[in-house]
Amino acid sequence: MTQTPELGLRVLNRTTLERQLLLNRSGMSAAQAVERLVAVQGQEIDAPYIGLWTRLASFTQDDLASLLYGRQVVRGSLLRGTQHLTLADDYVWIRPLVQVILSRTRQAAFGRLMRGVDVAELAELARGHLAGRTLTRPQIRDLLRERWPEVDPTALGWSAQAMLPVVHTPPNGIWGKGGPTPFTLAEEWLGRPLEPAPAVERLVARYLAAFGPASVMDVQMWSGLTRLRGVMEAMPGLRRYHDISGRVLYDLADAPLADADTPAPVRFLPWFDNLIVAFADRSRMMTAEQRKAVCVGAVVYPTFLVDGTVGGVWDLKDGVLTLEPFRALPDEVMGELAAEGARLMAFAGVGEGEIVWSSPGSSVTAP
Fold it and tell me: Would you say which domain of life the source belongs to (predicted)?
């Protein structure tokens, strides 16, 4: 029997960082980077900008804004049913794959409140209201209440969003832009239909290219999909490894592994960055205790990486960048973090900001 090679944590860490463009800033365009990452977490408006800035050699806020206005990148509910930015070319096949997640989440959250409502009828009615125009969730909610006045309005609005492929149009998703969230039909915004029956293997392969090697549970954690073991075991050409605990890891056959001794510079990751939530077993990025501090309920705090793994959390508010290391850091590393922090503040338009070092506690507050 052929033995599968064992991969240690350092090899897994460096390989993932390489694929995530975090060992060396890439010369890719913003569109190429979004494609590489499959989908960029956009739950917090400014996060995708920082996530791309930290990975690319040359990136401005206008680079992503122009892609959103040009309809090359769209923002909508995708992986795990949460907000992501992805290429329009990828949205048309990823969105149908994750419909099962959105339907499941909607039922769990609002099923009891929606008793007596025909969900298919609601979707078609909402589609009619959205045809040829853009509406906010309150506007969709109020229109649907004309048909179901006795039903919880929040449940109606969120159900429409879950059952229909909709995207959020700019200025939503533009750096620093808040306010009401607009919705429009994805097919109208993109000028083309969604793919009717995309293969889930396509999503698995894209994940492995961006995050692998990884286990079945890792892919399921990242995507929100389930029952992928049979899919991955049957996929031709995948290479198998195992980690130090014996878990089977899969990877693309031609995907290289990074050297364990490859230097890893300090990097800042934004709120909800997918690298932090892309694995069921996150030991390649952080310890179990650090995970408790970084992933709290539905919140994933912004982190900084030291020697490739999570070294602490950070916050940028009112011109002050607060750095909270999880352990004492050498002066050299603190200097690297300060220099990188200054670059971050310059990117964010802070100018002459201030860097404050905090002891572990509660200096970072959820958005």
Answer: Bacteria
